[in-house]
Specification:
alpha+beta; about 35% helix; globular
Length: about 325
């Protein structure tokens, strides 16, 4: 029996919390990392194993995920050279997602809890620099009422003119922009106005509305980062900067991501394969999909769907 087959079988039977410290998973991570980045695999493994297991401990939903999905997400860290290090500008994080894998013999839907490596806007910046799409991106700039700010297009080029008022004339935030230097040296801008984040807030509110059977009323649990009474209705500045980065690359070419990964700005349910002959997962997926009995295989003709409710109303998807 090949190593890929036996590893696939082990992963299917393994608890999520046991995957990362498995010796064969460790070996695969280090091998993939060194193949792509030439060196540093052992150090990267030890560092990311700590961060990964920390998130598994903190999020109960992740501990219910399949061993194979945990393996995919962990290996994708090696493929992309990213880190799960926490912080206000974290590059990526883990979320559990319920994936419909088919129907059983009685016709009921079959769901599986899967670990998903989600790349934030800041992580996407790193990937686009590594992919040669951009050279650099400045830190987002918050524009307040009273600042001089205008944007538009001149001779086919995006233009932003900005001058901060000093001393500041007011605390009301009216816009946020990000300056991007493309690979060819040209300049691009991502701009968010109050209208943009209020539209996102309205969408967030709809996603976080539920029916309370006790009061027989619909209840909305708004994301306070969009603004609350405590903040005077003002959006959180760090949250707005992250949103500006996150939505900056809607018109840029798609990035190739792994089987256990999604971009925060474009939650892909069926990520593109890595392409080529290099398989960072060591053939685990192909073998993991083989039936282990003579029972009928699940009906996948309807494709794979995601259960939005299992996202926990995570507004960060938007």
């Amino acid at each position: 029996m090949s190593n890929a087959i036996t590893l696939a079988q082990e992963l299917r039977a393994m608890r999520a919390t046991d995957v990362i410290r498995n010796e064969r998973v460790r070996s695969q991570f280090i091998s993939v990392y060194n193949s792509i980045w030439k060196e540093g695999g052992e150090q990267a493994y030890e560092r990311e194993a700590i961060y990964f297991n920390q998130q598994l401990r903190e999020k109960a939903g992740l501990r219910e995920c399949s061993g194979t999905s945990v393996f995919y997400s962990f290996i994708d860290l090696a493929v992309k050279g990213l880190t799960l290090a926490p912080g206000s500008q974290a590059l990526c994080y883990l979320i559990p997602r319920s994936v419909k894998t088919g129907v059983d013999q009685s016709g009921k839907d079959v769901w599986e809890k899967c670990c998903n490596l989600t790349i934030s806007g800041y992580g996407e910046l790193v990937l686009r620099i590594n992919a040669g799409q951009i050279r650099h991106a400045d830190n987002p700039v918050i524009v307040y009422e009273g600042d001089k700010f205008e944007y538009g297009e001149v001779d086919g080029r995006k233009v932003v003119n900005y001058m901060s008022a000093f001393p500041r004339k007011g605390n009301r935030i009216v816009a946020c922009f990000l300056k991007i230097t493309r690979a060819d040296g040209s300049v691009d801008y991502s701009i968010m106005t109050e209208q943009d984040w209020m539209r996102l807030k309205a969408y967030s509110d709809r996603q976080n509305t539920y029916y309370d059977s006790r009061t027989q009323k619909y209840v909305t649990k708004p994301n306070e980062l969009y603004g609350s009474e405590k903040s005077g209705g003002q959006i959180d500045t760090g949250f707005l900067m992250a949103k500006c980065v996150k939505h900056a690359f809607k018109t840029y070419p798609k990035l190739q991501i792994g089987r256990g990964t999604a971009l925060e700005s474009d939650m892909v349910d069926n990520p593109a394969s890595q392409g080529g002959e290099f398989d960072p997962y060591g053939g685990v997926e192909a073998q993991a999909q083989q039936p282990e009995s003579f029972a009928p295989e699940p009906d996948m003709s309807g494709g794979v769907t995601i259960d939005p409710a299992a996202q926990g109303g995570n507004d960060d998807v938007f």
